[in-house]
Fold High-affinity branched-chain amino acid transport ATP-binding protein LivF.
Amino acid sequence: MLEARSVNLHYGAAQALRGVSMVAEAGKITCILGRNGVGKTSLLRALTGHQPISGGSIVFDGQEIERLRPYERARRGIAYVPQGRDVFPLLTVEENLHTGYAPLKRAQRYVPEEVFDLFPVLADMMRRRGGDLSGGQQQQLAIGRALVMRPKILLLDEPTEGIQPSIIKDIGRAITYLRDTAKMAIVLVEQYFDFAHELGDRFAVMDRGSVVFSCGRDDMDEGALRRALAI
Ligand SMILES: Nc1ncnc2c1ncn2[C@@H]1O[C@H](COP(=O)(O)OP(=O)(O)OP(=O)(O)O)[C@@H](O)[C@H]1O
């Protein structure tokens, strides 16, 4: 589905990704773990096209897409929920959801019922401004807005950051549903180990711009995974 092959990424002279390879598959949750500043967000931005890569390639459904602009990748089905959510504070919940229409053909420009089934709070708050929602509600809105695009793959950057436990559970349930029922590919960048551990099918640990450890749920050695995270 979506693959990074030996990806390098620079900010000026500083190298943030060094030969990173990873694969995200349909119906699977791929977790990217690691401390602050190791390159997790940079990897997502490389996948979405928000930051150009300086080496390697990105392959989506068999085609190299590293030269495509972010909106072209969105049109192909790559959705991104950034860290900090980037909800438009002065737009209503409904208007925020409608911004997800941008890559869609006219006939598809409606909010799928699934969004409200997963996050009923959004239906109750359609006329509220995004900026008036709690952090957890904003996170649900940001995921809902991404789902409006009918993506094939959803990239989530620390969706649990600063969010209360009951909403973390709702988000976990939504991610599981999208994997199991909608057969979506999910890439989950997470610092909250237990959340990733509960949901993940594959795990990659990053350190200083490289993937230093990876494993699947079936061949997982939890001790080795935790040790890699403690580097
Ligand atoms: N726009 C930028 N310009 C210059 N350097 C940057 C920029 N964004 C990130 N970096 C640097 O690139 C490295 C990787 O950062 P990145 O945000 O990808 O890490 P991260 O693992 O996502 O961290 P966090 O968990 O704090 O979000 C860091 O050293 C960071 O300071």
